[in-house]
Write a structure and sequence with these properties.
The protein is α/β, with parallel strands linked by helices. The protein contains 19 helices and 15 strands. It has helices at 41-44, 50-57, 67-73, 85-91, 112-124, 138-149, 160-165, 167-175, 189-197, 205-217, 231-236, 238-251, 266-280, 297-300, 343-350, 361-375, 384-399, 418-425, 436-443, and strands spanning 4-5, 15-17, 62-64, 81-83, 96-101, 129-134, 153-159, 179-183, 222-224, 257-261, 286-292, 302-307, 316-321, 355-359, 405-410. It has a 7-stranded mixed β-sheet, sandwiched between helices. Strands 8-7-6-9 form a 4-stranded parallel β-sheet, with helices on both faces. The chain has a two-stranded antiparallel sheet with strand order 2-3. Helix 13 links the parallel strand 10 and strand 11 (286-292). The longest helix has 16 residues, at 384-399. The structure holds pyridoxal-5'-phosphate. Residues 109, 135-136, 138-139, 228, 261-268, 335-336, 380, 382-383, 411-412 line the site of pyridoxal-5'-phosphate. The site of pyridoxal-5'-phosphate (PLP) has 21 residues, from helix 6 and helix 13.
Length: 451
Amino acid sequence: MTTKYLLREDQIPRHWYNILGDLRSPPEPVLHPGTKKPVTPDDLAPLFPMALIEQEMSAQKEIPIPEEIREVLAKWRPSPLFRAHALEKKLGTRSHIYYKYEGVSPSGSHKPNTAVAQAYYNAKAGVKRLATETGAGQWGSSLAFAGQIFGLAVTVYMVKISYEQKPYRRSMMQTFGAEVFASQTNRTNAGRKILEADAASNGSLGIAISEAVEDAATHDDTKYSLGSVLNHVCMHQTVIGLEAQEQMKLAGEYPDVVIGCHGGGSNFAGIALPFARDKMNGKDVRLLAAEPTSCPTLTKGVYAFDYGDTVGMTPIVKMHTLGHEFMPPGIHAGGLRYHGAAPLVSKLVADGLVEAIAYPQKACFEAAVTFARTEGIIPAPESSHAIKAAIEEARRADAEGKTRVILFNLSGHGHFDLAAYDAYFAGKLEDYEYPKEAVERALTTLPLVQA
Ligand SMILES: Cc1ncc(COP(=O)(O)O)c(C=O)c1O
């Protein structure tokens, strides 16, 4: 009975998979927030180094991973694939449940897979400092680590409610050498505008993005770095799915369903896109994104052009959105509180290649606790949405008298999220269903563009 499927260091993927090269219809163009015309590489140059802009727009199906990046990834990659024997036993399911564990990275999640790549290309382009936002702190600590490795200063705008809920994430970022501010701040015009309107605002990922973008755009030596959503970020994460494909071969199985939680889309894309390639080539595999009912971007949002941030400074992209002015309730899965989604994932949902489902947070914590008590890993609250979906898939298969092979991405551990577990055990967590009227209201805030 094998529990872990491990690959050698020399099996770290040598290429990222770029699904843009395989899509049958091209994605909608990214639009300039001012002119509302398609952006050019030069428009993006104040924010990103040219190598990443090229990756963002490339139609090359496989992009080589530089050796310098593979060497850093080797600190924790290839990450293990586990068969969840104990969870299966506890559920009494006949299905086979596998999980790819990204919590073995320096920050404890999948985020360093792209942080390392982004820091590398920025350092190579002579950039001195990176500005970014973070929700739960996973992304900020990942970029802080990667910045240190390649000699870059890192400034993090951390969503205020998370800054208060997760003080040790801030300590971690500082240990890795970053400076951290609770967003909204009075350092930027974007932050001051929000503070004037609502001094007690919890902050949101959308506001923190506005602040980081403004910081980068107004300093010559500084670029902006985003931990999710963008094409190149999703592509950097495909090392997860590419490794998982090799590990499933070692297990002698192929998944019926591949699951990831969904915030901005990067860990889901990371595990699912290599399998989406198989699906486009005729394989029978379902791809399932799991999100919170309190921020139901894919399941209740509209597929429309919208800004990536709150203030309307970022390019306009076609994605599932709850409206850029969406203010999420302070749910504990901070990394899933984003109004938009990766345009790539949105397109796959719209094209029928990817399914989405939403779960309330209490049911996800219940699944997380079952998982912790069987598999011995305390999951990040974000990842618990994928666990909940995997358990539901197994239960459904049992009810149908079927045996399914279920693969999910355990995107991170929850060692910095124990206050959220405390709140769950104390019965203090509330479920929240984002109302349909709020979605309809949000529609009125979308930028007017000629589709
Ligand atoms: C552990 C973990 N999983 C998932 C997410 C959601 O982000 P994404 O949808 O980009 O993977 C986050 C975001 O911070 C996270 O920290």
